[in-house]
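Morning!

As promised:
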Amino acid sequence: GAVVSQHPSWVICKSGTSVKIECRSLDFQATTMFWYRQFPKQSLMLMATSNEGSKATYEQGVEKDKFLINHASLTLSTLTVTSAHPEDSSFYICSASTGYYEQYFGPGTRLTVT
Amino acid sequence: GQNIDQPTEMTATEGAIVQINCTYQTSGFNGLFWYQQHAGEAPTFLSYNVLDGLEEKGRFSSFLSRSKGYSYLLLKELQMKDSASYLCAVRNTGFQKLVFGTGTRLLVSP
């Protein structure tokens, strides 16, 4: 149980285009989902916290107009990277929580912007 | 501010024991987590401590001292597959979000 999926697992896009990443909790309802970014050989950095049906809470320094987060249901959250640039190339990981102590992580999405 | 520190890299040999330390200074505390992450993969949960003391789970154990802002992950009988990054994360009071440490890359050699 407690499986989280992400789609796509990897994506290459051209600079200036937008990319949408989906995060789904497959066998449980997630009241809260989290989006992280991880650069090579670095730790996870929290980008934003999203609760179903409400606006996401962004961490300091994360541009909310560039990284659009939609948590439309208890099993789906999406992250859209708008007007992507090469510096946005990173490993994006989501996690989902039922409200108890543990977060369940998705397999991650590797984004490369050319 | 929040600060969670771990050694950047550690090396050990197969069959040995290794201890990975984590020190933290955070605004509130509501539990400490250890995750294992292989390159290019998502983190997997290893342990959770909220009270002082040692939690043992097979080859892995985790210790917490809240007064010292200190935790360690102990890995016994090391195997080659234990080569990975180990992430310490603290959950703040009243929030679900986790603040991750810098991560420790462990290399296990034959």
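Residues 7 and 37 of chain A are 15 Å apart (CA to CA).

Hope this helps with the figure draft.
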